[in-house]
DNA sequence: TTGAAAGCGCTAACAC
DNA sequence: GTGTTAGCGCTTTCAA
């Protein structure tokens, strides 16, 4: 492996000058630059990233943390990684699984193994997590209110209210809700929307409410609960497309027709929503991925990259 | 940030001895070990991974390369990352997109930024790719026959033949095939299976054959071709669940009934197959992920981890 | 069983 | 413009 030292020996030019042309910082005369460039090609020189990292205390690597895998992880990661790569960052994926392993991953910030961290799904409390922000910027798509964690969140209240209203006007008086965990601020926002709507529309029924901490097996469980319900909602709204999809698939296995027997509404506007022909709510996760990276980049670098606008909206089945 | 040097200064013990207890190599007296351990806790010492990497010329990081995103990427990555994490490796994901960027990623092997590489979807020729194997082990799930690339491939011939036969016996005389690129050895194996079956069953019709290089928009395109066909196959087999799912979804949008109008068979046994209630072929991608990692690990380390057995099989819709 | 010393390959003051 | 020098934090001979 050719090093900068080999290049110096070969050309008779000092390491520092060579470093200058490789990294593009500082002045180097055209004649020397040419000699060095030629030698680089001839000797097939590739700078050692690890040595550079040690010296600069930077790895240009961002950690992407998720507790577990669910289909949206892949789509989100795809968006995040692409924007990161575009700006010279690579992405390390961690399926944290346990609180302990999540902490261990966060600690990589302290050793400069990771420059920054994005959190898709967390395990530890935001207080614990935010205590690592002094070692490197942290961002998430969750709705969290901490001074040192960037949250590119979407307020679910208005769009959720809007969708309930839309369903109501289309004749759905009994609407079910499959929601995420209550520790999630946007779950609480959704509940406020439900309650507020109910108050102004007393003839509507929004009693069917389920809460889940995870996405695995959830749609199936919700479907069983729906099937076991006497006064079944004619429409059910979900906190994730994937869960909604599993719900639909379970209903169909049980001889029900979707959307005739039950109109299912997802959230995310992911691939799977189109696949299942269900209406969904676009909550702009692609922009969120983008903006979450932009924040980290802007914290890490002197220049400023612009944020993208976000516009949550209803997406018809098509 | 506490360094090994700070520890040395504080305890009055040399850096080398401290290094020995941190890394667990070499003899250290119990008394000194205790002093060091205590100091480590007290000062909250976390070894700097980057410095270690530079010194050892190892990063314990494996590159996961895929040309583009499609749903199976996520599921595969999930399996791969988990087994890797279990053995102390983290995984860097690269969506390579272009031949040039793929090469650039491969070059990370030469600088010791990546210890090894797994290739899910490639762009450059295997000859080009394999020339990097001297810098670090490379594995893939593709069927490739190069001495220095580990291929944990499944021969699609027997299972594919078996499934055609199964469909035929269930009354499907006209079977369509949506296949991957012909440069793919297993695509050719599938074609051999089709042709061999046809030779021994002249009354069967297997003329509907489509070939694709990518997974995006493919299912929709195939569906349109199916709809435009006069003598439509009563069953279509696919090279990927995701493509099959898009096919189903497009047929349904066009008023067709699945499986009544067309029995769709996927390949992969991924989440989406269950979601769409379609039969599929389990080609053991989870084991392939496992074994692909095992190979890299075994090349990189003195100890030997065992491989998992693979048993491709038909999976009913359920 | 321990410590001194020599780097891994690169960057960045600083001096000239 | 360019070279000298001093590290980044760690591991690993080698000698004691």
Automatic annotation (TrEMBL), chains A, B:
The keyword Transcription applies. Residues 3-46 form the HTH cro/C1-type domain. Residues 2-56 form the HTH lacI-type domain. Keywords: DNA-binding, Transcription, Transcription regulation. SMART domains: HTH_LACI (SM00354). InterPro entries: Cro/C1-type_HTH (IPR001387), HTH_LacI (IPR000843), LacI/GalR-like_sensor (IPR046335), Lambda_DNA-bd_dom_sf (IPR010982), Peripla_BP_I (IPR028082). Gene3D superfamilies: 3.40.50.2300, lambda repressor-like DNA-binding domains. GO terms for molecular function: DNA-binding transcription factor activity; transcription cis-regulatory region binding. This is LacI family sugar-binding transcriptional regulator.
């Amino acid at each position: 492996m050719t090093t900068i030292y080999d290049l110096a020996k070969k050309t008779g030019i000092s390491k520092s000058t060579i470093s200058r042309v490789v990294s593009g910082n500082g002045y180097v005369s055209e004649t020397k630059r040419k000699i060095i460039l030629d030698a680089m090609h001839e000797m097939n020189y590739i700078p050692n990233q690890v040595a550079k990292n040690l010296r600069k205390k930077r790895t240009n690597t961002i950690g992407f943390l998720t507790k577990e895998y669910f289909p949206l992880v892949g789509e989100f990661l795809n968006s995040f990684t692409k924007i990161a790569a575009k700006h010279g960052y690579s992405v390390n994926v961690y399926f944290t699984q346990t609180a302990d392993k999540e902490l261990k991953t966060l600690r990589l910030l302290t050793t400069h193994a990771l420059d920054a961290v994005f959190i898709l799904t967390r395990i530890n409390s935001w207080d614990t997590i935010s205590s690592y922000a002094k070692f490197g910027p942290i961002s998430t798509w969750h709705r969290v209110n901490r001074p040192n964690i960037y949250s590119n969140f979407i307020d679910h209240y208005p769009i959720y209210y809007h969708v309930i209203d839309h369903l109501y006007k289309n004749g759905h008086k009994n609407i079910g809700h499959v929601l995420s965990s209550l520790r999630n601020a946007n779950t609480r926002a959704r509940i406020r929307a439900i309650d507020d709507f109910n108050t102004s529309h007393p003839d509507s029924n929004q009693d069917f409410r389920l809460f889940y901490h995870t996405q695995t097996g959830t749609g199936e469980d919700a479907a069983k609960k729906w099937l076991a319900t006497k006064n079944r909602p004619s429409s059910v709204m979900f906190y994730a497309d994937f869960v909604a999809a599993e719900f639909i698939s379970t209903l169909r296995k049980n001889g029900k027709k979707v959307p005739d027997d039950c109109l299912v509404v997802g959230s995310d506007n992911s691939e799977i929503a189109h696949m299942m022909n269900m209406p969904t709510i676009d909550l702009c996760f692609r922009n969120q991925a983008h903006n979450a990276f932009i924040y980290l980049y802007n914290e890490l670098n002197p220049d400023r990259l612009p944020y993208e606008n976000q516009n949550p909206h209803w997406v018809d089945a098509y």
